[in-house]
């Protein structure tokens, strides 16, 4: 057996996230939880070869900002990490970099949702189209062909890791199409009485929290100007944005979230995305009660998630056990063990979707 194929000799979780993120999550406490379960938590030094820092049983990361940067230094860092993963296939990665890349691209993410079976239970992603040109006439034609209706939300292509990923616009009419800033994704706006449901997922555990959202908007044939906003600011728990205040003539009562649908969303997306740590933004359409997935993020903030560290270490332990059992089975069967069966299925699903984008 090659030295690189041996199981890690120590129970070390190598992790990386920004200092800001680790402070917000009080990451020191997670180190204590890890020790209670026989793991040592070690922060990765991305300036040094990982070979000199291991061996690792698990690599846990939030590398979205580095992946999104895509400059020369960032590419070198990611290349080193991917080479380490290739050299040590028994190390569990939470989450696979290919899966994270998919979620960084809103257009690909919406296509993943579109290609699941969730529509069978009235869970959908609103009609969308990519906007790559500044040609207004061309873009209006693309919008019509894709079935994107006014008003629609114009969102940056990159969903996380940049200073502009939350800068969005509400476009009300054809005149406003000139305000689209490519590359971006245009997505039909769904009226939902200013209530956003954030679904936080940690492995097999999930928690739903309610947040403020945009009020109801309607198509306008007049000269109503485009509204620009920061989606992160609008949906904060303590937000008092005027954009979240319903008009006096509208009822403040929103449609209720369906817990059975939430369970199906987690089960389905976890399989298609091959992700353990992600968040789903859901709105419930007025009148129809259909559930619309409007965004998915890798490793969200987890605000309001009870016992997050307990659920996270449980996720690590269960995913590692699944990975070890799956790879052991394929080794005994004589199959290639570079990826587990679930990983191969999920990667095949993603590849079949991404090849058309």
From TrEMBL:
InterPro entries: Inositol_tetrakis-P_1-kinase (IPR008656), InsP(3)kin_ATP-grasp (IPR040464), ITPK1_N (IPR041429). Mg(2+) 1 binds at residues 281, 295. Residues 231-255, 333-357 are annotated as: Disordered. Keywords: ATP-binding, Kinase, Magnesium, Metal-binding, Nucleotide-binding, Transferase. 1D-myo-inositol 1,3,4-trisphosphate binds at residues 21, 62, 166, 198, 297, 301. Its EC number is 2.7.1.134. It catalyses: 1D-myo-inositol 3,4,5,6-tetrakisphosphate + ATP = 1D-myo-inositol 1,3,4,5,6-pentakisphosphate + ADP + H(+). It is an enzyme of class 2 (transferase). Its cofactor is Mg(2+). GO terms for biological process: inositol trisphosphate metabolic process. One of its GO terms (molecular function) is magnesium ion binding. Monomer. This is Inositol-tetrakisphosphate 1-kinase.
């Amino acid at each position: 057996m090659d030295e690189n194929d041996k199981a890690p000799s120590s129970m070390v979780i190598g992790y990386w996230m920004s200092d800001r993120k680790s402070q917000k999550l009080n990451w020191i406490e997670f180190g204590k939880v890890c020790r209670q379960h026989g793991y040592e938590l070690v922060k990765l030094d991305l300036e040094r070869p990982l070979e000199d820092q291991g061996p690792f049983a698990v690599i846990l990361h939030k590398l979205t900002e580095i992946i999104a940067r895509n400059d020369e230094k960032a590419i070198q860092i990611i290349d080193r990490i991917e080479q380490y993963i290739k050299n040590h296939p028994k190390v569990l990665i939470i989450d696979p970099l290919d899966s994270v890349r998919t979620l960084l691209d809103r257009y690909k993410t919406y296509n993943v949702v579109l290609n699941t079976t969730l529509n069978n239970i009235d869970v959908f992603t609103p009609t969308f189209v990519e906007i790559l040109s500044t040609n207004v006439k061309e873009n209006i034609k693309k919008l019509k062909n894709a079935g994107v209706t006014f008003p629609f939300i114009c969102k940056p292509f990159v969903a996380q890791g940049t200073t502009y990923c939350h800068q969005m616009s509400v476009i009300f009419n054809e005149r406003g199409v000139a305000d689209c800033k490519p590359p971006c994704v245009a997505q039909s706006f769904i009226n939902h009485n200013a209530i956003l449901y954030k679904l936080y997922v940690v492995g097999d555990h999930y928690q739903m929290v309610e947040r403020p959202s945009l009020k109801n908007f309607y198509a306008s044939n007049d000269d109503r100007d485009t509204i620009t906003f920061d989606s992160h600011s609008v949906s904060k728990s303590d937000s008092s944005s005027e954009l979240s205040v319903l008009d006096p003539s509208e009822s403040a009562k929103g449609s209720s979230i369906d817990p059975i649908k939430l369970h199906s969303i987690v089960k389905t997306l976890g399989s298609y995305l091959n992700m353990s740590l992600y968040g789903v933004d859901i709105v419930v359409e007025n009148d129809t009660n259909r559930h619309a997935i409007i965004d998915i993020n890798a490793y969200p903030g987890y605000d309001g998630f009870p016992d997050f560290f307990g659920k996270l270490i449980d996720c690590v332990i269960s995913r590692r056990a699944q990975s070890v059992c799956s790879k052991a089975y394929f080794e005994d069967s004589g199959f290639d063990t570079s990826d587990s069966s679930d990983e191969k299925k999920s990667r095949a699903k993603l590849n079949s979707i991404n090849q058309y984008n």
